[in-house]
Fold each of these.
Amino acid sequence: MKIDAIHLRELNLQLVHPFETSFGRTTHRRVLLIELQSEGLIGWGECVAGEHPYFSEESIDTAWHVLQHELAPALTANEVEHPGKCREIFARVRGNRMAKGGLENAVWDLEAQRRGVSLSDLLGGTRETIPCGVSIGIQDTPEILMQKIETEVAAGYQRIKLKCKPGWDINILEMVRNRWPDITLSVDANSAYRIRDLDHLVQFEKFDLLMIEQPLWHDDFYFHSMLQKRLQTAICLDESIRNRRDALAAIDIESCRIINIKVGRVGGFSEAIAVHNVAEERGIPVWCGGMLETGIGRAHNIALSSLPNFSLPGDVSASKRYWKEDIVEPEITVSASGEITVPTVPGRGFEVRTDLIEKLTVRRETIRALELVR
Ligand code: OSB
Ligand code: MG
């Protein structure tokens, strides 16, 4: 396929509820969307880099820079026979995986339309529906948290994940387990603990958690492996897993027993599929993480979650938990049994509301293919 033009846009969107993790609170999202124009079709991608480089080294501003000056020019200068070729085209740019992922996924989005197949089919998906969980942030009071859990359990979500940090952990888990002894529960620390907290973390065992996500350093395997040896509860790695080789290393030294796959964190669908496959070969279940995406990133997460080894409920939930008005139509909804139906129509299966996007755009840039090289 020939890419004629790449449009970058920044949207400013207010979250319905602020989202707080151990590294900070988000009230608004600055969303970087990528629109690919190719032979009369339009592919969309969402770069999930945050407002600040707190979850990873990237931020929306670094991603914008790398997309505009490196990745988009490289893509328009190349013939792309298959979206899987993007990794090679982007290879000389080190890191910057969220920038790469946003662009690569737009190519997959386009390719699904070109071939007239669903994005799920193109990626190798097999599930008709995906199981959904929710990630609930740190709240101002435990009472507000209890209310939120009640709402989400009543909505049918299959797994509740609580953000935790020192001072918002054992006390909170006691309260939650007293009220809901049987729900599937997990925690995500986003690297809030150190190995010196080992005895403290061992106390999490009594809450019968499905997993403890990324308790230690964001770039660590070794100390997670030490910790996993001391815990019955499974450790799940998020931040630490950047690619297939990381997944292999983490599995081999038993740093984790579960892996969270975020397509942006690993640099796009190709690498996400590679992580999925290596985990599947070694009997390690995976689930799809979220980054407070709009409907575009969410549609892509749904397609990815339809692969066979995504056997645990993910953090992919309904649009209305994040946005008053989502930028896709229909918006993403979750059934009373906590499932999302995977679209079977060609492409991503959710139409992009370009009028609304136009209204929300605060910054834009276009990179065109050079006619000379054609
Ligand atoms: O660690 O999974 C995380 C949001 C922003 C950054 C990191 C994380 C999260 C979430 C939210 O947990 C998941 C979602 O609801 O999109
Ligand atoms: Mg996480």
Amino acid sequence: MTTVAELRERLSEARADAATHGRAEPPIAFVPTMGALHDGHLALVRRAKQLGGSVVVSIFVNPLQFGAGEDLDRYPRTLEADLSALDAEGVDHVFVPSVEEMYPAGAPTTRVTAGPVGSLFEGAARPGHFDGMLTVVAKLVNIVQPTVALFGQKDAQQVFLVRRMVADLNLPLRVEAVPTVREADGLALSSRNRYLGANERRAARTLSLALEAAESAADGGVDRAVAAGQSAIMGETLAKLDYLVVVDPASFQPVGDDFRGTALVIVAAVVGGTRLIDNAAIQLT
Ligand code: AMP
């Protein structure tokens, strides 16, 4: 567990050591998280390890990406268990900055804006969320200076916007998306799943079932896929559908019924007060 200064020092020591021994600089793979780690996070860590360099994991519950009335205060914090899980995975550096360390002058006046896609879907439900997320990712990337940063495909709009920021601002790193890790019944792992009571947990399965329904109906085109997915969720009384939309992965804009190729079905629903999201690729031929 390290602070900003300690992390910078350790990473520059590793770089200097490589230079002294005439070795190429080891790649640094970076996994940003908000902690309360589960197997989804660990899949990112394992992929990062496979890349062969050093692995940095950050744990930071970023106040900037939570709106008023959201779950910032009750967001699960399980630092000891997180640190032992990361130790067991052989992570080189765990970076756990405090809010004061990340924002010494209070909320930053300079921020990244996510642009038009930032106010769609998750951004419509959570105004300012993506600006806050991109701002902290930019700060973390500047601190860690990784070769590659890994993100979960589960948060598809987040991956899209991070890739866009990296391209738009010429950030010198590669972004890699890691497939979604699921429970046996299909529910995508999420730190927020622990908010679900037993009945809600059963109802939460409706999101992945809706994605399957959309996928099965994709032969009939986009409109049929959307209708099949939406009616799967509307059949579950404990779930309140926010959106189920088919988007073009290249633009994250909704596609028309004439779209052909690989598209992304994205879904959000509130189950017993907990907002859940999921997505899956579908083929439209
Ligand atoms: P979070 O701690 O929720 O900010 O998530 C940190 C990273 O883990 C993000 O890149 C998420 O997309 C990723 N992640 C969360 N859940 C999963 C999952 N079920 N499968 C794969 N990646 C995930």
